[in-house]
Amino acid sequence: MKYLVGIATHTGENIDIHFGHCKEFQIIEVTDNESYEPVNVIDAGRACDGTCDHTEIARVGELLKDCKYVLSAKIGPGAAKILRDIGIVALEIEAPIDYAIDKIMVYDQRQAQANRG
After folding, report:
1. d(CA 96, CA 112)
2. 17, 96, 112, 26: which is closest to 64 by C-alpha?
3. What's the whole-number average pLDDT of the chain?
4. How far from each other are the two terminal CA atoms of the chain, in whole angstroms?
5. pTM to 2 decimals?
6. What's the pLDDT at 52?
7. Could you give the residue ranges of the DSSP H alpha helices within the chain?
8. How many angstroms separate the Cα of 9 from the Cα of each of 33, 96, 112?
9. Domains, the chain, ranges and CATH?
């Protein structure tokens, strides 16, 4: 099974930026919760310039709609709800990308087991 993860990163190495301030999202493809690789960068523009407009957040969400998860250092409740409404799980984590993807693979496996349970 494959799925995509959107990463809010300023440096390309760490998850280190607020969802609404991220201009480019790195897209990671995870395969069978065992391996992953970067597959794309989405130029999203900023969803929030100090006044978080839900139209802009929804626009960025639409660009990320193929992702199962979006990881960012911070995300507001309005943005998290917009993503959740289109089927994306938004999670806050400030960490190196490799570490975060390892954690998301474990999380995804546990979620799958719980849903089968």
Report:
1. 24
2. 26
3. 93
4. 19
5. 0.93
6. 66
7. 54-63, 77-85, 97-116
8. 21, 10, 27
9. 2-116 (3.30.420.130)
